Structures are given as structure tokens and as C-alpha cells.
Amino acid sequence: MPTEHAAVRVVHKPWGVDDLKPWSNIDGSGAAVGELWFERADERAPMPALLLKLLFTSQPLSIQVHPDDTFARAMGMPNGKSEAWYILSAEPNAQIGAGLKHQVTAQQLRASIQDGSIAELIHWRSVAAGDAIYIPAGTIHAIGAGIVLAEIQQRSDATFRLFDYGRRRELHEDNGVAVAHPWPLRTPGNSAVVTANRTILVASKHFVLERIELPEGSSWALLAEPETWMLILDGHAAVGLAAASIGEAIFIGGGRTSIEVGDNGLSALIAYPASRPVDVLLQSLDDQPGKPAHPAAHSVPQLAGIAEART
């Protein structure tokens, strides 16, 4: 099964930035970079179900909403779009919007889109590095200025814009009202620390997002799903034959893959399409025969609480 460095597609946005360090050495001084998309290196390879991105914001993004699978398919799209954000860095007082402050009727939601008051209706919250936010389809949401985040999402471009800070782009009032959940986002469940090496950040019906922390000089086997993405947050490692460091992504096409951790340890995000976490995602190769398996090999407890609380 392939284990490969992901290719990077640069997406220029007026709300982007010119300096992407330490996540990338790409120069955005000529045209601001808003997004980096990680893709299969071979353009002829099967299209992955998930899309991994980095977003860089110097201005607030539009307030928007995505359809669920049912609505998207009724419009001729393959699927809807649920997503999760992991905050890599945030300036003081940087905020994201997720859900509404209180429930409103469809008529009230439509009126707030028409007069722009939806910007005051959305529930804004401060964020800091290390926060994880799950945005199920139907959730009205927005990303504020001064944030760098990693996004994992169902692969879809189904987006309905509800407010755009005067940028004069098209709004999608009818579809937005039709798909939106006009109420607060349910309080998300806490991240689940499975072992000293694994933390489940999001467990939804569409994908699982984990953070792993591996000590320096250690050796591991990653028992990956047929589609698994790894984003390096800190440190470096050799994943299969691919060496990777901060800001780089690895695509793993399933099966058993080795991870040889460098001198500075490894912190990474791992995402894969599944309805629950893989029980044995990591197996330590440093254990001696006859000794108990490393805790990372233990079964993952039932985590329905995370998914249910966040959907």
C-alpha cells in the first residue's frame, strides 16, 4: 500500500497571509495564501474521501453552512460536508463562530441573512492552539482573523455563504436556510485520552481525528485504515520511506507502516474515514518479547459520547 508525501496545492485568498512559517516556506508576499491543500502525489490515484487543509487568516472568513449528505445528493453532489478544525496558532482574542447564540425560526434566520445581523446572532468563542472543534453539516460557522488551523473534511465544495463582510460575493440565502440548523451547537464532548500516545479529538460518523505524541527515538507500527492522513505538528519522523517534519503531510493507503521517530519526538494529527476509532492504531516496536504490550496497543474504549455530543 502507498505511503507518500502529500503534494501541496496553494490556494490564494484575499484574506490570507504572506508568511506561512513555520508550517510552510511558501512565499505569499506576491499574492496572499489562504489555504494549502494536501493531495495525493499521483494525480491519477483514486480521489480520497477526506480533504486535509491548512488555513491562514488575516481577515475573517464568510459566515457559511454546509449541507448534509442527504441534501447534497438531492442536488446531484456525491456527499455533504462535515469538518473539524484543529487550531495550530491563534492571535490574542482570535475567535471562531460555531452555531447560533439561541434558536431562531427559519423566517428569523432568513431576515438575519438579509440585514446582516447574522454576524451578531452567531456564537463566537475565543480559541487557542490545541483546540479542536467539530462542525457537523448544517452548523452555521465562521473563522475569524489571526488564526492558523488544520481542517479535515468530507471532500466536497458544497458551501452556502450567508454573510461576507461586504465583499460583494454571492450569498446563498435559500439553500442556506434550507440546510442550516438554526440553533446553538451542542456542547462538544471532551477529547478522549486513550493512552499516553493517543488522544481522540473528534469521532464522528464520517471521520476520526486523533493527535499522537511519540517519544524521541522510538519505533512504531501504524496499522492504518485504507485512507489515513498524517500531519506533522512538531518534531520529525520517517513514516515508511517518507521523511517528514513540521507542516508536512503523509498519505498512507492502509496496512502496516513503520514510524521511526527522530531526536525531537513527534507530535502529529492522524485522520481517517471511519465511524469509530481504530482499536489498535499504534503498536510499539520497542517492547521486548515476553513483556506486556505497550499501552498504545490496548483497545480503544467506546467513544460514542464524543460523536453524539458533537453532532
Fold and architecture overview:
The protein is mainly beta. It is built from 5 helices and 21 strands. It has helices spanning 69-74, 106-115, 118-121, 173-179, 304-310; strands at 3-5, 7-17, 33-39, 50-57, 63-65, 83-90, 95-100, 122-126, 132-135, 141-143, 147-154, 160-163, 192-193, 198-203, 208-214, 219-224, 228-239, 242-245, 249-252, 255-272, 282-284. The strands form 4 sheets. Strands 1, 13, 14, 15, 16, 17, 18, 19, 20 and 21 form a 10-stranded antiparallel sheet that branches. It has a 6-stranded antiparallel sheet with strand order 2-3-4-11-6-9, with no helix packed on it. Helix 2 (106-115) packs antiparallel against helix 4. The longest helix is centred in the middle third of the chain and has 10 residues, at 106-115. The two termini are 33 Å apart. The model is unreliable at 288-299, 301-305 and 307-311 (pLDDT under 50).
Helix and strand layout, with pairings?
Layout: E1 3-5, E2 7-17, E3 33-39, E4 50-57, E5 63-65, H1 69-74, E6 83-90, E7 95-100, H2 106-115, H3 118-121, E8 122-126, E9 132-135, E10 141-143, E11 147-154, E12 160-163, H4 173-179, E13 192-193, E14 198-203, E15 208-214, E16 219-224, E17 228-239, E18 242-245, E19 249-252, E20 255-272, E21 282-284, H5 304-310
Antiparallel strand pairs: 1-19, 2-3, 3-4, 4-11, 5-12, 6-9, 6-11, 7-8, 7-10, 13-14, 14-15, 15-20, 16-20, 16-21, 17-18, 17-19, 17-20
